[in-house]
Amino acid sequence: MKIAIVGATGAVGQQMLQCLEERNVPGELKLLASARSVGKKFTYKGQEIAVEELCEESFEDVDYALGATGNDITKKWMPWAKKNHVVVVDNSSAYRLDKDVPLVIPEINPEDIQKHHGLIANPNCATIIALVALNALRKEFGIKRMIVSTYQAVSGAGVKGIHDLEVQSKDPSVPSTAFPYQIAYNLIPQIGDFDDLGISKEEWKMQNEGRKIWHDDNLLVSCTCVRVPIFRSHSESIFIECEKEVDVEKARALINEAAGCVLKDDPKNGVYPMPLDTTNQDLVFVGRFRKDISDPTGHSLSLFCCGDQIRKGAATNAVQILQELIK
Ligand code: 11C
């Protein structure tokens, strides 16, 4: 069995390589990237693998592919993979909302994987982190509406984002390459282009992808996405309005048992989720539970969560899907 990582030299592609090794996924590995990365070598399971140029013939000997390229490049190579009957798990947003493409978080809707026609999409990182944190609460209380504010790390914008923060932390006058403004010592309330409603592409993903993953076309989400000067791990402040009255103690107990979650909720003793603590591991930390005091019905809950968006928000989630596929 041969697995290809397409976009192997980027932040997500490199993390996919590490996750495949950590999880001891069987099979040979092929690393594909653009011409300028050809010849770069990476160690996988003790062996050096050279990066090959992504081209039409790349998929002839490949069984599964993990996609870590942007939308435009993904649309170019997807027909090449399809022609060779390669089963693809793709991290771009190019096909996420297509009807015949399952959009999967393995802790939530693993059964959708089997409905694939050669392509399974990995959700947006902020969506994955929020939905993993909320899934058990949704099952118990029923979520009607969510208000989410994200605090998204620069590595969500890839290696250029990491470079901008590193360089600008020392010299703020260096222009950004990944962001519209200086990111060091700043916040930027824009991730993706805005539409006529003033909502950014990233902000739409939480509702559109959330509806598809939870199979709930009535889910309502208001989202504000903000880029913050943090290297790694996205954080999210979340308000949920539920069908049933919520119980804070019950919520804590549910998160304590929930797949993919770690309960971090003892604020008086300084215990709450923080992005430094979730960096370079696969679980979503959830805490700061409190009833929303502005809702007298008691149906609303506020919380805070953090997760490593390159791991669980991208590479780990894709590798988990692959593991389900080859099980
Ligand atoms: C960011 N969430 O932090 C974005 C990156 O839809 O997969 C991933 C965009 C996506 O900039």
From TrEMBL:
Substrate binds at Q152, R227. Keywords: Amino-acid biosynthesis, Diaminopimelate biosynthesis, Lysine biosynthesis, Methionine biosynthesis, NADP, Oxidoreductase, Threonine biosynthesis. Pathway: Amino-acid biosynthesis; L-methionine biosynthesis via de novo pathway; L-homoserine from L-aspartate: step 2/3; Amino-acid biosynthesis; L-lysine biosynthesis via DAP pathway; (S)-tetrahydrodipicolinate from L-aspartate: step 2/4; Amino-acid biosynthesis; L-threonine biosynthesis; L-threonine from L-aspartate: step 2/5. One of its GO terms (molecular function) is NADP binding. CDD domains: ASADH_C_bac_euk_like, VcASADH2_like_N. It catalyses: L-aspartate 4-semialdehyde + phosphate + NADP(+) = 4-phospho-L-aspartate + NADPH + H(+). InterPro entries: Asp-semialdehyde_DH_CS (IPR000319), Asp_semialdehyde_DH (IPR012080), Asp_semialdehyde_DH_beta (IPR005986), NAD(P)-bd_dom_sf (IPR036291), Semialdehyde_DH_NAD-bd (IPR000534), Semialdhyde_DH_dimer_dom (IPR012280). Phosphate binds at R96. Residues 2-116 form the Semialdehyde dehydrogenase NAD-binding domain. It comes from the Bacteria. GO terms for biological process: 'de novo' L-methionine biosynthetic process; diaminopimelate biosynthetic process; isoleucine biosynthetic process; lysine biosynthetic process via diaminopimelate; threonine biosynthetic process. This is Aspartate-semialdehyde dehydrogenase. It comes from Absicoccus porci. The gene is asd.
